[in-house]
C-alpha cells in the first residue's frame, strides 16, 4: 500500500450562534481524490476531520465549548428560541475525549508536505478504533480487516426505504460513529397524492419499499428467465413477476442519479446525522457507487436546512474558493466555504479564460460520466439475453448500475473489471464529482 493522498486546506464556516452573530469560521485540511476516486476511506477521513474541526472551539478561558450545529439552530429557529446546548454540555467530557482521539487523525492529514501515505491513514484509523472511545462492539476484528482495502471498494447494498442491507462493510461507519446515508428512495404511499385503485404508484411502492438494490436486480433476472424460457403458458405468478419487473425497471431508469426528490427531502429533514458526541451535522453519502462527505447546513438567510457535499476532485486542488457542492437532483452548483455560489470569473488564482475552461471541463466530464453510467446500466443482462435467445424474443428491460469505485450489490471482481475499463478510456472519470 504505497498510495498517497494529496491534501487541500479550506476555509469554511458553520452557522452563527444566534441570528445576530456572524458565521463561525474554520480552517481544515482535507484529502483529495487519487486514482481510486471518491472512495469510502476518503469520505470517512474527511468527515471525521470536519467533525473534529467544527466541534473544537475554545472560549477565552480555554475551556471546551461545543460549536452549534445546523440542525439545532434550525430547530431553535422554528421554536423562536436561542436556548443553550444543555444536552451537549452534559456530554462535554465524552466529547473532549473523542475529539482528543480525532486530533491524531487531524495531525496526520495536516502533514506539511501536502500528501498523506495510505499506510499512515490506515494505522491511525486502526488506533482510533482500538481506543475504546468509539462504540465498536459489533465486531472489531471484522472492521479492522476492512481497513486495508477500504480505499478500493466496499460492497454496499442500499434499500429503497433509505436504509442499507446488513453487511460487514456497514460496521466500518458505525465503528467511527459516522452515519452512512443515501437518498435513493421510493416515495411512500402517504406521500403520493390522488391515489386511485390500481394506480402504478401503489403497485411500485408495494413492490419496492421493502427491497434492496440486489433484490430488485434478482426480480429483473427472474422475469428475464421466465420470458426466455419460451413457455407459452405462463402461470399467474410468473405474469405477476413480469409485471412487477416492468415497474421496477422503469423506476430505475428514471432514477439513474440514485437520488429522488423524496429521498432528498428525507435526508434533509428526517435523518439525524448523529455521532458519538451528539453534535455535528456530517455524514457520508452513498450515491452512484461513490462516497462523499455531506454537511447539513442551516441557511440563516432563507431559514431552511440545505445539504452540501465536500468537493474533493483533484481538478479543484488549487482552487481554494471551491469547497462545497449543493446536493440536488440536477445542476449541482459550486459554493465557497461561506456557502456563496462560486462563478468561474470570480476565481482569483487563475486567469478568467483558464478558469472558465477548467469549469466547463469539469461539467463536461460529469455529463459524460452520467451518460456512461446510463448506457452501461443494461449491459450485463442484455448480454445474457443475447446468449440465451434470438434477438426477436421480447424481454424485460433490466437495469444494472455501473460504478467506478464500488458496485451497489455487485461483486468486487465485476467492480475491478469495470474500473479498469473506465481507466483505460479516461483516467479522469474516477475523479468526477457526483
From TrEMBL:
Residues 4-53, 105-339 form the MINDY deubiquitinase domain. GO terms for biological process: protein K48-linked deubiquitination. It comes from the Eukaryota. Residues 411-434 have a biased composition (Basic and acidic residues). GO terms for molecular function: cysteine-type carboxypeptidase activity; cysteine-type deubiquitinase activity; K48-linked deubiquitinase activity. Pfam families: MINDY_DUB. GO terms for cellular component: cell periphery; cytosol. InterPro entries: MINDY, MINDY_domain. This is MINDY deubiquitinase domain-containing protein. Residues 384-434 are annotated as: Disordered. It comes from Babjeviella inositovora NRRL Y-12698.
Amino acid at each position: 500500500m504505497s498510495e498517497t493522498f494529496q491534501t487541500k486546506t479550506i476555509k469554511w464556516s458553520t452557522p452563527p450562534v444566534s441570528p445576530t452573530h456572524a458565521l463561525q469560521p474554520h480552517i481544515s485540511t482535507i484529502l483529495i481524490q487519487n486514482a481510486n476516486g471518491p472512495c469510502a476511506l476518503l469520505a470517512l477521513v474527511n468527515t471525521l476531520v470536519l467533525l473534529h474541526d467544527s466541534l473544537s472551539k475554545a472560549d477565552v478561558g480555554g475551556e471546551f465549548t461545543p460549536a452549534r450545529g445546523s440542525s439545532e439552530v434550525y430547530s431553535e429557529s422554528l421554536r423562536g428560541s436561542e436556548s443553550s446546548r444543555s444536552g451537549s454540555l452534559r456530554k462535554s467530557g465524552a466529547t473532549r475525549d473523542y475529539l482528543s482521539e480525532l486530533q491524531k487523525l487531524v495531525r496526520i492529514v495536516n502533514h506539511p508536505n501536502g500528501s498523506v501515505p495510505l499506510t499512515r491513514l490506515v494505522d491511525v484509523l486502526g488506533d482510533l478504533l482500538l481506543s475504546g472511545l468509539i462504540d465498536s462492539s459489533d465486531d472489531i476484528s471484522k472492521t479492522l480487516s476492512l481497513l486495508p482495502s477500504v480505499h478500493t471498494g466496499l460492497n454496499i447494498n442500499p434499500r429503497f426505504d433509505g436504509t442499507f442491507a446488513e453487511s460487514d462493510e456497514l460496521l466500518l461507519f458505525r465503528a467511527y460513529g459516522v452515519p452512512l446515508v443515501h437518498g435513493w428512495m421510493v416515495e411512500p404511499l402517504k406521500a403520493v397524492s390522488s391515489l386511485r385503485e390500481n394506480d402504478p404508484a401503489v403497485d411500485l411502492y408495494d413492490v419496492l419499499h421493502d427491497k434492496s438494490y440486489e433484490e430488485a436486480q434478482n426480480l429483473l433476472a427472474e422475469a428475464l428467465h421466465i420470458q426466455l424460457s419460451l413457455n407459452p403458458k405462463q402461470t399467474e405468478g410468473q405474469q405477476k413477476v413480469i409485471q412487477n419487473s416492468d415497474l421496477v425497471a422503469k423506476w430505475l431508469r428514471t432514477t439513474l442519479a440514485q437520488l429522488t426528490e423524496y429521498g432528498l427531502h428525507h435526508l434533509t429533514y428526517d435523518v439525524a446525522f448523529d455521532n458519538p458526541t451528539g453534535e455535528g451535522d456530517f455524514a457520508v453519502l452513498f450515491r452512484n457507487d461513490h462516497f462523499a462527505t455531506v454537511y447539513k447546513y442551516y441557511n440563516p438567510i432563507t431559514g431552511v436546512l440545505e445539504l452540501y457535499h465536500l468537493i474533493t476532485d483533484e481538478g479543484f486542488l488549487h482552487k481554494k474558493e471551491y469547497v462545497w457542492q449543493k446536493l440536488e437532483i440536477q445542476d449541482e452548483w459550486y459554493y465557497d466555504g461561506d456557502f456563496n455560489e462560486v462563478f468561474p470569473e470570480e476565481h482569483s488564482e487563475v486567469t478568467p479564460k483558464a478558469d472558465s475552461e477548467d469549469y466547463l471541463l469539469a461539467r463536461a466530464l460529469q455529463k459524460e460520466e452520467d451518460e456512461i453510467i446510463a448506457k452501461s446500466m443494461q449491459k450485463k443482462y442484455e448480454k445474457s439475453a443475447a446468449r440465451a435467445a434470438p434477438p426477436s424474443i421480447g424481454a424485460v428491460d433490466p437495469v444494472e448500475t455501473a460504478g467506478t469505485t464500488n458496485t451497489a450489490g455487485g461483486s468486487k471482481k465485476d467492480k475491478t473489471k469495470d474500473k479498469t475499463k473506465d481507466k483505460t478510456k479516461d483516467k479522469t472519470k474516477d475523479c468526477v464529482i457526483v
